[in-house]
Amino acid sequence: MSDLYDVDVLEWPEHQARLLRQGVVGEVGNEAPDWANIIKHVKSVGRSELHTVESLWTLAFLHDLKAEAWPLFLIGLPESMDGQPLLPVSV
After folding, report:
1. CA 79 to chain centroid
2. Prediction pTM value
């Protein structure tokens, strides 16, 4: 069943979960869980989640820096009803 790890990315975790549930309940199965790839998969998912959090944190930090550093008149202010800027713009 180790071949399934390389062939079907969706079926492999489902199959391994079934094997692990059988082991927890005490059912005897014909097949042992694919421990080497389970360990590899769990580590990979953990690294992926950590990378995602780091990436989103960096993006949020950069947006915050931009919001603090750029004056409002560079972004553009909404205009009043008569088409005049709400605040005077000096360049």
Report:
1. 38
2. 0.44
Print burial letters for 18-53: b (CB count within 10 Å at least 16), e (below 16): ebeeeeeeeeeeeeebbeebbeebeeeeeeeeeeee
Q: Which long-range contacts (CB under 8 A, 24 or more apart) does 1-5 make?
A: 1/31, 1/34, 2/34, 2/36, 2/37, 5/34, 5/37, 5/41
Print pLDDT tens along the chain (91 aa). 567 878 877 788 888 888 888 876 666 666 778 888 888 887 787 788 888 989 999 999 999 888 777 766 555 555 555 566 556 656 5
Contact call for residues 73 and 89 (beta carbons, < 8 A)? yes
